[in-house]
Structure to design on (488 residues):
């Protein structure tokens, strides 16, 4: 029995040794075959995603510290990633999802990635980068001339240089046959001609042969000095307008046509809404006004301060121009529609209403019977009658805009508008700040204030440069933000 067991054990030991020799022989054979068909790429080569590689037994462990399994060696693997945050020089292997160092790795199809071939690709890429920088930094006229010449002859400047100086083949270039790649790797374009040809097909921004249409939507806010009372006019009266202000929100649309470097010309329209206010002061001295019954003669004097305001809508139809450097200019008519108007007037203290009895030569000042301005009548407000429902303005804007990265623009401008119509249509001004009537029977005298506009101004309708009447003028600063939509 012992003899039988000894024989069986001897046979098993012999079989194990033979099997081990076969495995070792297979590894050695496979190692020899693969190393004959795949080579180490050299120090100048950077592994790229998609490369097919083999791992030799020189790799004793992964970068994470684990020891590779036996089956990992001498089989094809695919590079999933070259370098990472944790292992900048590591190679991530697809399938086993492990990081290894570049030493001990061999490329399958190595004749494409010998040190000489890698150096050539690096030189080609360097030439392309140099040419790009050269074209980018070149003067615009010179660049356009090169591009036009290249288009006519269907070639690039670098192609000419390469033809006049053909590259010599290196004698030590690898010619070993490559293993059949299961996942063929897509090559980077080594030819400089192809890279530049792609760039030249892109339209040049300042090419004079390119026509552009630009649609622009603009949101603007403007405000400044405004006037609606240019002159106080009347018998025995003096006065002056007081500067006011206006604030308007602009919503505008413009369409431009542009050709190359030339300025863009277009038409601008839209809708504006806002508020305008201005004022006036007036002073009068009226004497010799007879009462209705002819028994009294009034000598009236006084001062008043008035403010007029309007809510307006404006529709511009203007010629517009924008240059490539950012300057813009708009000029043309604005149709103004007063939506609502109001006024506020205060009679200053010291108004005198003196009534003289001609028969007796007696003068009474500010008496109820002869005529007195009541305290309730010192200030009054209301909506002004006789105001125009339409005005035509001649306007202009001049400014500069900064182009933003998102193709939009932010701009600043100065503006001015002048009204061609008188807003207040009162052909026969009253000419006095107060209307006075003598006592009739048991009724005391009455004194009624007029607004400054009704008393001392008159409108003449359309009159360019009119110096009387309630005209419109404003000027100030405008801020806008424009959304640009370019069509080739």
């Amino acid at each position: 029995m012992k003899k039988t067991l000894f024989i069986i054990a001897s046979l098993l030991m012999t079989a194990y040794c033979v099997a081990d020799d076969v495995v070792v022989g297979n590894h050695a054979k496979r190692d020899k075959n693969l190393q004959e068909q795949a080579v180490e790429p050299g120090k100048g080569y950077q592994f790229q995603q998609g490369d097919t590689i083999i791992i030799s037994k020189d790799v004793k462990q992964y970068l994470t510290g684990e020891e590779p399994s036996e089956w990992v060696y001498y089989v094809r693997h695919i590079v999933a990633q070259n370098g990472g945050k944790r292992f900048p020089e590591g190679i991530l292997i697809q399938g086993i999802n492990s990081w290894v160092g570049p030493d001990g790795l061999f490329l399958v199809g190595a004749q494409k990635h010998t040190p000489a071939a890698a150096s050539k690709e690096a030189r080609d890429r360097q030439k392309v980068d140099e040419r790009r920088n050269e074209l980018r930094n070149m003067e615009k006229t010179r660049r356009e001339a090169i591009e036009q010449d290249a288009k006519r002859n269907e070639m690039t400047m670098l192609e000419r240089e390469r033809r006049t100086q053909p590259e010599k083949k290196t004698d030590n270039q690898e010619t070993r046959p490559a293993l059949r790649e299961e996942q063929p790797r897509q090559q980077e374009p080594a030819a400089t001609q192809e890279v530049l040809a792609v760039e030249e097909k892109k339209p040049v921004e300042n090419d004079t042969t390119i026509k552009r249409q630009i649609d622009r939507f603009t949101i603007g806010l403007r405000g400044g000095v405004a006037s609606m009372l240019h002159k106080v006019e009347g018998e025995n009266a003096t006065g002056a307008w007081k500067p006011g202000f206006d604030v308007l929100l602009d919503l505008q649309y413009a369409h431009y046509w542009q050709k190359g470097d030339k300025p863009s010309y277009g038409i601008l329209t839209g809708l504006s809404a806002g508020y305008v206010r201005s004022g006036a002061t007036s002073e009068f001295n009226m004497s010799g006004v007879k009462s209705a019954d002819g028994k009294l003669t009034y000598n009236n004097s006084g001062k008043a301060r008035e403010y007029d305001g309007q809510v307006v809508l404006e529709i511009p139809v203007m010629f517009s121009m924008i240059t490539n450097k950012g300057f813009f200019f708009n000029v043309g008519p604005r149709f103004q529609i007063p939506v609502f108007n109001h006024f506020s007037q205060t009679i200053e203290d010291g108004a005198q209403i003196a009534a003289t009895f001609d028969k007796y030569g007696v003068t009474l000042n500010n008496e109820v019977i002869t005529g007195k301005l009541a305290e309730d009548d010192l200030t009054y407000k209301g909506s002004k009658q006789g105001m125009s429902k339409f005005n035509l303005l001649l306007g202009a804007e001049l400014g500069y805009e900064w182009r933003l990265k998102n193709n939009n623009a932010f701009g600043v401008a100065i503006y001015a508008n002048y009204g061609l119509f008188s807003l207040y249509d009162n052909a026969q001004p009253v000419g006095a700040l107060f209307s006075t009537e003598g006592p009739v029977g048991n009724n005391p005298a009455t004194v009624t204030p007029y607004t400054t506009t009704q008393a001392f101004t008159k409108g003449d309708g359309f009159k360019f440069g009119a110096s009387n009447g309630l005209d419109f003028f404003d000027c100030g600063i405008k801020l806008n933000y424009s959304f640009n939509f370019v069509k080739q």
Notes: Residues 18-25, 168-210 have pLDDT under 50 and may be disordered. The helical segments are 2-37, 115-137, 140-153, 157-164, 192-201, 452-456. The longest strand covers residues 264-290. The chain has three domains: 2-108, 115-201, 211-487.
